[in-house]
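User: Could you check the structure of this?
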Amino acid sequence: MKALLFTNWHLMRWVRLVFALFLFAQAYILKEWMFIGFGLFFFIQVIFNLGCGSNGCTIPNNKYNKDE
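Assistant: Sure, the predicted structure tokens are below.
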């Protein structure tokens, strides 16, 4: 779990963290508590490094032909 939190920090992970913190702040300032749910969505993506990366949401094609 420690390695998951402290490794592989790329630009999109930082952007998600900043956006989650922004949504938490807006929820507190505006008293619109629905923003906490959206902030949690992005914060969970940051913690577990989920979401689409720079390659998009594609499934890797690991099929090999017998001829190759």
